[in-house]
Amino acid sequence: MTVRKNQASLTADEKRRFVAALLELKRSGRYDTFVTTHNAFILGDTDNGERTGHRSPSFLPWHRRFLLEFERALQSVDASVALPYWDWTVDRTARSSLWAPDFLGGTGRSRDGRVTDGPFAASAGNWPISVRVDGRTYLRRALGASVRQLPTPAEVESVLAMATYDMAPWNSASDGFRNHLEGWRGVNLHNRVHVWVGGQMATGVSPNDPVFWLHHAYVDKLWARWQRRHPGAAYLPASGTPDVVDLNETMKPWNDTSPADLLDHTAHYTFDTD
Amino acid sequence: MPELSRRRALTAAAALTATVGVQTVSAPATTAAGAAGGHDHGSPASFDEVYKGRRIQGRPTAGGGHHGGGHHGAGYAVFVDGVELHLMRNADGTWISVVSHYDPVSSPRAAARAAVDELQGAKLLPFPAN
């Protein structure tokens, strides 16, 4: 059974294996298919039209499935690897071990945002940015430059306290847990973390930065925590909602899984801590 | 992934339409807000300026009422040095672009300027670029 661990508690060997599996997916071309898929949904999901991956109730189950696909790809390279998560309420500075050269590498240099250390630095030659929206082919970051603070534990707590999963109009204007976690309203959790990292993480091709997976693994964990907090609260909407994935409707691009199939993460993995 | 392919194909089609559209514009417009008419929510005015050494332009698009085509439903197009920047309007009237997708700003011009800031001189690639 896959156990997803806090990135801060990984051993040196676990970090090495995770990084090696990422680099192998990149080398084989499989990594970039995930970036392409994410960007296609970022471009296609609209508040007044069809919306599946973002700005909609299925933001959480869609990313849960997307991460499962990615984790299975990693495990096809090295069966011991699981996706770690980044609790950005705790590891909230650029000095975190997350950003050390033996793991993801640090922030970008000021001149052009280029990451210059770690396994994903362009200079190492193993991480070309191929699926991109501009001419730059190197990984970029600007940790803490566009927004100073990552969300705090109290801010996370205020969102976990919201008892309703999602509400009409089921988009970026919604009240409720999903949209506050996604960040289009309120204290802003998930969106703000993308902005805090900067570089490709702030764009539609955000999975170009491996921290994408650690960020979303923690967002996914927060969904699990919310479910435990509100055992009577269900995924919404239940049925009959145009342009929106209802509980038992299948999701693109897989077309074989509904939100209902993904509500219980323990069928696929557990977390190191609750 | 046939649905994804369809979506991407439509995105490409929309991009082509937008490119043809801009070539037929005779002069930089200074259209008043809402001039495009018939939209769910009136479009912001056109703009055309040089910002940090780069030409940024924005204008309402004729096909703005169409939804589900993959390529936004914004009804508004923005260009950086002539290359279209993918733009999206949020339900609350704020805007984001593909290079600043998680950080809403108040207008298409602000999104264009944010893109120029983000690009640090790099060339924008036409979408879909990959």
Describe it.
The complex is a heterodimer of chains A (274) and B (130). Chain A has a two-stranded parallel ribbon. By secondary structure, chain A is an all-alpha fold. Chain A is built from eight helices and two strands; from the N terminus they run βααααααααβ. The longest helix of chain A has 19 residues, at 59-77. In chain A, α1 packs across α3 and α3 (59-77) crosses α7. Chain A starts with a strand and ends with a strand. With 130 residues, chain B is of the alpha+beta class. Chain B is built from two helices and seven strands. Chain B has helices spanning 2-23, 108-119; strands at 47-51, 54-60, 76-80, 83-85, 87-89, 95-97, 100-105. In chain B, the strands form two sheets. Chain B has a four-stranded antiparallel sheet with strand order 1-2-3-4, sandwiched between helices. A three-stranded antiparallel sheet of chain B has the order 5-6-7, with helices on one face. Mean pLDDT of chain B is 72; it is low at 1-40 and 64-70. Chain A binds chain B through residues 36-37, 39-40, 42-44, 46-50, 55, 112-113, 130-136, 146-147, 169, 171-173, 183-184, 190-192, 194-195, 202-206, 252-253, 255, and chain B through 1, 3-4, 7-8, 11, 40, 67-68, 70-73, 86, 88-92, 98-104, 118-120, 122-125, 127-130.
